[in-house]
Amino acid sequence: MNSTNEGTNIGPYEERVKDFSWDAVSRELGHEDGAPLNIGWYCTDRICKQGLGGKTALIWESTQGEERKYTFDQMRLYSNAYAKLLQELGVKDGERVAIYLDRVPSLYFSLLGILKLGAIAVPMFSAFGEEALQVRLANCDAVACITSPRLARKLRKARPGLPALKRVIVVDVDDESKLKGDEMAYSVEDAPPVDDFPVFPATEETPSLLHYTSGTTGQPKGALHVHGSILSQYITTKWVMDLKPDDVYWCTADPGWVTGISYGVIGPWSLGATQLVLEVGFIPARWYSAIEKHRVSVWYSAPTAIRLLMREGEEIVKQYDLSSLRHLCSVGEPLNPEAVIWSEKVYGLPFHDTWWQTETGAIMITNYPGMEVRPGSMGKPFPGTAAAVLDDRFEPITEPNKPGKLALKPPWASMFREYWGNRTIYESKFKNGWYITGDRARIDEDGYYWFEGRDDDVINTGGHLVAPFEVESALLEHEAVAESAAIGTPDKVNMEVVKAYVALKSGFEPTKDLELSIMNFVRKRLSPLAMPQYIEFMDKLPKTRSGKIMRRVLRAMDRGEPIGDISTLEDE
Ligand code: 6R9
Q1: CB under 8 Å to 38, separation ≥6 — which residues?
Q2: For residue 219, what pLDDT band results from cuts at 50, 70 and 90?
Q3: What is the average pLDDT score of the chain?
Q4: With a 6 A CB cut-off, is 331 part of the ligand 1 pocket?
Q5: How many CB atoms are closer than 10 A to CB 64?
Q6: Domain ranges of the chain
Q7: How far, in Å, CA of 174 to CA of 66, rounded?
Q8: What's the number of CA atoms in the CB half-sphere (13 Å) around residue 566?
Q9: Which protein residue's CA is at the shortest distance from atom 1 of ligand 1?
């Protein structure tokens, strides 16, 4: 798949690699050394100062199909109003404020408002159940949470475990009598406009966001990001998404995950781009009609969505005018070559795979507009990024096509600065001067990177990472469960889904009803993503002598691979 880089923002890749400098990115953003750098201000006020206040920043479609548009100037005013509200409620800079909302406009206004105040925004996926929510908000001692009437019900159940949570702000309230206790109704569009808010003078190192992600051991960890991340997010959006002034950009990711923030808020708005947000989830007809109606030109999605669209077939594509599309990107899981070839055939454009992580904050390895796409490859490192594949001694492998640990050379602007309150695990991610990603990859003769799989037990289901430990902890809370283990089992659409192995307490029988009860139990506590799609009952689980469950043995069993003699494992 050959193309040309003529007219792209990045131009010739090799030249950008040669002349890349963070200072040049700072200059482009008009940022002087030592001057304040606040993401909230950069995504709204700065764009208005450039004379684009009247440009549409957000096109929003509700689940029911209602459409609303907001200009950069409205974004500026509404984010100011949220900053002022939180300030009046006593929230201080550095404190954590959670956002637990579906994709409604207030999610975006409040996020930018929290950043303008200098507080740390903690986005929570709206499908999280009470336990998933409680574990995360308790971990970071969130002092306030912005939510909706529907989600407030789940938050109420989590609240006894959240002593630090003093303020609950509920948006889009129809009936105030349904609010409980100290919950406060707020409507930014009815509040007095706040034209001038003294934006917190953040520096590049001031904390901005806490994104929870799943690790190999323990509960999810909060990856702490800083305002300086905007340098990475700005330049990657400009060069990888190739956004131009007239583009209509659509990132399908939910802001509960890092993609929905780095490329669904910060990157596009720091460039003054118009972006579309659909409240509704994946519905092929709604997606295609939205592209047609809003003339979407740049589309950032995920392999699972693409595979689902492939399953819907080509006929439905022909019913819509998708001629506005000009550039497509994907992230979150391996993008299989068939998906790239299919999209080239039906949309006339290949999806460009991009690779990165919550911890990296921005795209690190990717296929560039105008560069040859090798279907199945993640592409090449972003200019200014040193990547490598390391051997077991954490030394770079120079031989082409030999798989190893994918690693990046710190620092870069959007690198996470800490796992909240967990210095030891943070430090364990750095070895021999490299950040170890937890993925395996190989590099071919021409410098293209190929994903080989994860190097740990984390489950990637439909692009969402699930910590086995979190699922196992939830399973153990079920009255019938004595021992539990969770692994990812291969799935055609979602790449992997969660499978649980369970040993029951005496007195319980492995029935279909019990299986469903356990599944539902996890779904309600954690989320539909973390719910095991399969449960296998066992008398006891394979464990080491120290009591660690051997997930690797269970994975081998699941895949029908030889596992050896399990009885000896207890002695390992
Ligand atoms: C942005 C995001 C990160 C993990 C990552 C890897 C997997 C992401 C990928 C990919 C193959 C790609 N992943 N992009 N695997 N090809 N293009 O997804 O962040 O939720 O932290 O997930 O997802 O395993 O390490 P996060």
Answers
A1: 115, 116, 118, 199, 200, 201, 202, 206, 227
A2: confident
A3: 95
A4: yes
A5: 7
A6: 13-443, 457-541
A7: 17
A8: 16
A9: 357
CATH code for the part of the protein at 13-443? 3.40.50.12780
**Is there an atom of ligand 1 within 6 Å of 259 CB?**
yes
DSSP structure string for 72-113: HHHHHHHHHHHHHHHHHTT--TT-EEEEE--S-HHHHHHHHH
pLDDT the model gives residue 215: 76
The per-residue pLDDT for 347 is 97
Q: Which residue has the tokens 């950040």?
A: 435
Three-state SS for 511? Answer: coil
Helix axes 303-312, 337-346, angle to 10 degrees: 50
The three-state secondary structure class of 10 is: coil
For residues 409 and 387, what is the distance between their CA atoms, to the nearest angstrom? Answer: 6
Residue the block writes with tokens 């929570």: 124
pLDDT > 80? residue 57: yes
Say whether pLDDT at 164 is over 90: yes
For residue 283, give every residue at least 6 positions away whose Cβ sits within 8 Å of its Cβ, in sequence order, or none.
none
Q: State the Cα–Cα distance between residues 366 and 240, nearest whole angstrom.
A: 8
Q: What distance in angstroms lies between residue 559's CA and the mean position of ligand 1's atoms? A: 23
Say if ligand 1 is within 6 A of residue 95 CB.
no
How close is the Cα of 571 to the center of ligand 1, in Å? 35
Q: What is the pLDDT of residues 386-408, one digit of tens each?
A: 999 999 999 999 999 999 999 99
pLDDT at 33: 86
Is the CB of 360 inside a 6 Å radius of any atom of ligand 1? no
Q: Please give the distance, rounded to the nearest whole angstrom, from the Cα atom of residue 365 to the centre of ligand 1.
A: 11
Per-residue model confidence (pLDDT) at position 400:
97
- The domain 457-541 is classified under which CATH number: 3.90.1150.10, 3.30.300.30, 3.30.930.10, 3.20.20.140? 3.30.300.30
Given a cut of 80, is residue 569 above it in pLDDT? no
Q: Which atom of ligand 1 approaches the CA of 451 most closely? A: 11
Alpha-carbon distance of 240 to 10, in angstroms, equals 8
d(CA 145, CA 241): 32
Best substitution site from 461, 465, 494 to test ligand 1's pocket, by max atoms within 8 Å of Cβ? 465
- For the Cβ of 236 lying below 6 angstroms from any atom of ligand 1, the answer is no
If you take atom 5 of ligand 1, which residue's CA is the nearest one? 357
At 17, give phi and psi (nearest 5°): -60, -40
d(CA 495, CA 489): 8
Q: How far is the CA of 236 from the centre of ligand 1 (A)?
A: 16
User: What φ, ψ does residue 452 adopt, rounded to 5°?
Assistant: -115, -10
